[in-house]
Amino acid sequence: METRLEPKFERLSVSRRLRGMLGVDFYRLFHTPMFYIFLAIAAIIPAMVLSTGGQDGGAALYTNTWNIIAADTPLYVVRDIGDYANMNMVFIFGGIMVSIFIGHDYRSGYVKQLFTTHAKKRDYMMSKSIVCAFAMACMCGTYLLGGAFAGILTGASMRVNFGSLLVAILGKMVMSLGWASLYTFLNVLFRRHFGISIASSFFLGTGIPIIGAAAILGNNSALNVFLYGSSVNACLSSNLVTLGTCVVVSIAWAIIYNLLGSAVLARSDVY
Amino acid sequence: MNAIEIRGLKKSFRGLYALDGLDMTVPVGAIYGFIGENGSGKSTTEKLLCGHLVPDSGKMKLFGKSYKDAAIRYRVGALIENTGCFPNSSIYQNLMMQAINLTLDNPNEEIQRVLKIVRMEDEAKLKFKKCSLGMKQRIGIAMALLGDPALLILDEPINGLDTDGMRIMREILLDITQNCGCTVLISSHILGELEKIATHYGIIRQGKMVQELTAAEMEGRCRMFTSIKADDMQTAFLTLRQKYDNVKAEEGYVRVYDVNDTEGIVDTLMKSGCIPGEVTKNRIGLEEYYIDLMSKKGA
Question: What is the ipTM of this complex?
Answer without folding.
Answer: 0.87
